[in-house]
Amino acid sequence: IDLLQNQGFDYCHGKDIAPDSENPLRTNFDEVILKPILQDAISRLNSNIPNSAKDDALNQVLRVFSPDLMVANKEFHNLLSNGVNVIYRKDGLDRGDYVRLIDFDNTHNNDFKVVNQFTITGNGQNKRPDVILFVNGLPLVVIEFKNPADENATINSAFRQIGTYKETIHNLFFYNSFIIISDGLEAKAGTISSGFSRFMSWKSADGKNLASNLDPRLETMILGMLNKETLLDVVRYFITFEESSFTDRKTNIKTITTVKKLASYHQYY
Fold this sequence. Notes:
Blueprint: H1 2-6, E1 10-13, H2 35-45, H3 51-62, H4 69-82, E2 84-90, E3 93-99, E4 112-116, E5 120-122, E6 125-127, E7 131-135, E8 138-145, H5 155-168, E9 178-182, E10 187-190, H6 217-224, H7 228-237, E11 239-247, E12 254-262, H8 265-268
Parallel strand pairs: 1-4, 8-9
Antiparallel strand pairs: 2-3, 4-7, 5-6, 7-8, 9-10, 11-12
């Protein structure tokens, strides 16, 4: 959290912005988006769009849903990277336009928050991911830690915990760009569809020099991948959804699967 604050993230403790706090940023514990922050960003970044269309864009984001996590995640990624398609009347004619959720061209024109102890209710259970990074109120990055002092708490334990979250608070992952798992020293990034072996380290803080094996991987990842510029760049250009099909020879039934892919550090640089 200190490292992220040093890079310009505002820090909030989950309790301080909870529905029952003095300064709530959501109305109930089921909500995973900081609606007032997103609403302000949409208004600020789209001054040429009528208020009715801005409200429509906000509602489209809030309504993202599918029983299939990948379908919802892909839908949101399209809204995030391409803008939200809206239609409004101007000069007596229907006009189509796109509402931006993030200013990708001017990093400092966005709201970056690092939040811990953010309680989310799902399936009758309360879950608290260790750290969530919000950009304009959108929970784009989930970070799960395991205690390096506990020999039984490995980075694989953090990966399994993410799996539990996906089952119980799946709506958080509708809006997830990528996931980081760490044991405090090692750190790896992947997506909602990544198996454990597909989570990869980020091995350079600046793209020019490889980190030493003595350098904590988590610190390298925070400096190299989670600085504001690189984070937005990765979200916009270095995530893709790849479809593949399989046809059962006996039944002739065709199955299509989608995999979400995140560029590794050397592909990015």
